[in-house]
Design brief:
Blueprint lengths: L1 H9 L13 H14 L1 H17 L6 H19 L12 H28 L1 H6 L5 H28 L11 H25 L2 H14 L12 H9 L2 H12 L7 H34 L1
């Protein structure tokens, strides 16, 4: 008996970490539960962020209107002065630029949202255990809230220029959601790196600034040449153009690319969500150490 007891005291137990990817069904169930559990916290964060965004600003909600208006004014003046040579557009040019700029700005906000959310919440991430999905959901809500404000400006331009609206306008939110999901997919992919390196947020400003000129925001989609190839290769192009076409003409010019990019976006969003969940504990531990 004593011999057995001494052997049991000397016995070593070794714990080996096991990846959660070995049990995908269990991981999916946990992710779904955390997503549902994060709704209340996401709502509180959304209300807090929106209140702070407009309370600490002198111009308030005007910032949602100013970028599209300024860009539309600037490019319209350059177009009328023949400084830039733009092909004919389906809409009056000021409305075309303003509407496209509002869509582009929404995409950029969706990209920056997850990165900004985790950077601001860095102290809370290190001290409090909560579903990280709440940060992403809050930023998604903020993106759609800001676009809802821009809709007032868009409706005003459409009324001013007497732009006819097709019945397909009711389908435009579907394409808009896909555009926002594409931005969120890229933002979640960069979020863990954004906590570790400030270069990510600074680099995003440079990249999106250059990316704008490869997106048909101030010009129609070119069909020829290397530049036309790059614009059509741009994943934002079919989503933004389809949203604009559904809201106006009702004729989708490139449905194939729209559905291909949408499918890649949805699959990529799920993969980056899993990567985000697996990477965040290690990232938070490194930041807090």
């Amino acid at each position: 008996m004593k011999h057995q007891q001494s052997n049991s005291q000397l016995r070593e137990v070794i714990y080996t970490p096991e990846s959660r990817l070995r049990h995908p069904l269990k991981l999916a169930q946990q992710m779904w539960r955390d997503l549902l559990a994060s709704r209340e916290l996401a709502w509180r964060l959304l209300v807090r962020d929106i209140s702070a965004q407009y309370r600490q600003s002198f111009l308030g909600v005007a910032w949602a209107f100013l970028p599209p208006i300024i860009m539309a004014l600037g490019f319209t003046l350059a177009h009328d002065a023949k400084v830039i040579n733009i092909q004919a557009t389906d809409l009056p040019y000021p409305a075309y630029v303003m509407f496209s700029t509002a869509l582009w700005q929404t995409f950029v906000e969706a990209v920056n949202g997850p990165v900004q959310a985790v950077m601001v919440a860095k102290p809370m991430l290190a001290r409090v255990n909560f579903p990280r999905e709440a940060l992403i959901l809050a930023k998604l809500g903020e993106v759609f809230f800001n676009f809802a404000i821009k809709l007032i400006l868009i409706a005003g331009f459409f009324l001013w220029f007497r732009i006819p609206v097709s019945w397909t306008v009711i389908l435009a939110p579907v394409a808009l959601i896909h555009l926002v999901f594409l931005g969120t997919f890229l933002g979640i992919l960069l979020a863990p790196l954004g906590i570790l390196y400030q270069d990510v947020s600074r680099g995003l400003s440079l990249i999106t600034g250059f990316w704008l000129f490869l997106t048909p925001v101030v010009y129609p989609v070119p069909k020829q040449g290397i530049f036309g190839f790059l614009v059509q290769l741009n994943p934002v192009t079919p989503l933004l153009v389809t949203t604009r076409e559904l809201a106006t003409t009702g004729v989708i010019s490139d449905p194939y690319r729209f559905w291909v990019v949408s499918a890649i976006t949805l699959i990529g969003l799920i993969i980056t969500w899993v990567t985000f969940r697996l990477a965040m504990p290690f990232v938070v531990e490194r930041v807090s150490s």
